[in-house]
Structures are given as structure tokens and as C-alpha cells.
TrEMBL record:
Leader sequence residues: none
Active site: 126 (pros-phosphohistidine intermediate)
EC number in record: 2.7.4.6
One cellular-component annotation, GO: chloroplast thylakoid lumen
Cofactor(s) demanded: Mg(2+)
Family: Belongs to the NDK family.
Record-given protein name: Nucleoside diphosphate kinase
Organism: Jatropha curcas (Barbados nut)
Amino acid sequence: MLQEQEAHAAELERTFIAIKPDGVQRGLIAEVISRFERKGFKLVAIKIVVPSKDFAQKHYHDLKERPFFNGLCDFLSSGPVVAMVWEGEGVIRYGRKLIGATDPQKSEPGTIRGDLAVIVGRNIIHGSDGPETAKDEIALWFKPEELVKYTSNAEKWIYGN
Ligand code: UDP
Ligand code: MG
């Protein structure tokens, strides 16, 4: 049984989620964590940090040609960010669903951005958009030893094994 659970856990996917400075300042840390936690995803790493501008530019390197890149990196490095790794079946794709569309005007009600944000430049949360970015972003923000391996008591109720 334990072996089965470990095998199951090893297959689980991980995503990088960050509450940006606006979400932290607005007191939305618990709200965001709660939505991922209640869904059944497992928190395996968390820290609060003020990223440097250089670090923010690394995080958003894919967007460096976009006109908003500089302002975005200034903003991400302007205050504390809650960086997290969440684990679970389908967490990358479903995490993006929980977050909602990039522009909060287009995010559905019920999503984090839909319920809690108004403009694209202050959309409170980041989530990896695919398996490759998830891997790269987790490696950028966390050392391997900062990811905690554990079996949650809820897992057998969430996954049925
Ligand atoms: N962004 C912006 N203006 C835009 C598009 C994006 O300020 O026109 C910001 C926004 O905060 C977004 C971030 O840049 O969350 C990263 O953009 P991306 O397209 O990767 O959106 P996300 O993956 O965060 O939904
Ligand atoms: Mg993105």
C-alpha cells in the first residue's frame, strides 16, 4: 500500500504558483492558498521573497520583447511575492483554470482573477502555463531540497487509493 502510494505520488505533476505583490498587499494569500487546497492539490513548497529586478526578468524571460515587460518586472520586484509549488493530477492545467484568463475583465466569475482582480497589470497571481515552464520556474524559484515529499492523509480520499 505504501509502495503504491509512493508510486502514485511520483507520477504526480507539479506547478509553480506565485501570489504577486498586489495579492500579498491586498491580504489575499490565504484566499489563494485555500482555493488550491480545497480543490485537493498539495502544497509542497512555499516561501515569501522580494525578487530582484534581475530575477523578475529571468522569471518572465519569454515576454522580454513585449512592451509591458519592463513595467511587469518592476512590479514583480516591488514587494513580497509568495512563491509556491503545488502538486496533483492535472495541477498545471487545472491551476490555470482556477486562476482564470490573464485579463481579469475576461476571467470567468469563480476564478481567482475573475473574483479578485480588475486589470491585467494587477492580476494578483502567476501560474505556470505548461509542463516545461513549470519545470523551469520551479527550478528558478526553489532549490530541490526546498520541495517537501510527504503523503497527505487526504490523498486516499481525493484519489481513491
Ligand atoms: N501582462 C500585462 N499586460 C498585458 C499582458 C500581460 O501587464 O497586456 C502581465 C500580466 O500581469 C500577466 C503577466 O504579464 O499575468 C504575464 O503575461 P502572460 O501572458 O504570461 O499571462 P499569464 O500567464 O500570467 O496569464
Ligand atoms: Mg504566463
